[in-house]
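Late entry, written up from scratch paper. The run itself happened at the end of the previous shift, but nothing got recorded in the book at the time, so transcribing now.
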Amino acid sequence: LEEQGESDPALFLSVLNRVIYKNIVRTQTDKYLTLAFVDFRPDGEVILSGQHEEVLIVRNDGSVERIDTNDLGFPVGLEPDISDFVATRSLRLAAGDVLLLHTDGITEAENPSAELYGIERLCASAAQYANGSAESIKTGIIADLMAYIADQKIHDDITLVVVKQR
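Output as recorded:
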């Protein structure tokens, strides 16, 4: 689809879902995935589509917005057709705003007392480092997370994408 110039995220997700669903049925597995598309436009507009973890935006004034993606998609591979569930949302980033994408391996990481790191800690950590570069924000958040979990075993992937608007 990308090679053919398709840029409609709803169509992209629908076609991808059909392919993955057919493979899941063929292989008789119970796997599925969540997937979000994030399209950055030169004017600071961000088009978000698909269901995944909450998207976080740390505004240049330090406030944190939590963008719920549940109404933007459906898990890929569970149903033969998800086209009725896929939607898009437009967001705007101003200079200095930070957008964070993350996996649940961050929010579900546990400390030695079996307490989850959670979305609130992630938001607080992101706000704490938001004045730095994208790289320093990522490094700071991961350092906070690793200090929190201490010597606990990591049970899931820890993925963090940080984008800072210029």
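The first helix runs from residue 9 to 27.
(Scratch paper discarded after transcription.)
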